């Protein structure tokens, strides 16, 4: 049975899509340009949250966080989304804006871990500013 978003979530997601932050715009360009096969979507209602970016195909949620994030609220949100079968990774705004190569490398590694291609070598990488 499919879980439908709560009333108003879709219209809220549409409003968020129309006014992205600079970091969200940069992440969206990165995801479109480097990971089209994952079919990421922006501002996706999941349960009673709206994820910044989600790939249903790869079961991956990417959050782009500013200074207002972190702590128990984000931990609870992550746990609920992960209970739906998604992996959640978070990046701070300055990392997305200033280290696109590192962000891209980390996303590639996570996508490879979740859905390894039998003929491609692992392209892992780390990013100190990423948090999950």
Automatic annotation (TrEMBL):
Assigned keywords, A-Z: Endonuclease, Hydrolase, Nuclease
Record domain DUF559: where: 10-110
Pfam families per the UniProt record, alphabetical: DUF559
Segments for region (Disordered): 1-20
Record's keyword annotation contains Hydrolase: yes
Taxonomy of the source species: Bacteria, Pseudomonadati, Pseudomonadota, Alphaproteobacteria, Sphingomonadales
Entry superkingdom: Bacteria
Matching SUPFAM superfamilies: Restriction endonuclease-like (SSF52980)
Name listed for the protein in its UniProt record: Endonuclease domain-containing protein
InterPro entries: DUF559, Endonuclease_DUF559_bact, Restrct_endonuc-II-like
Alphabetized GO MF terms: endonuclease activity
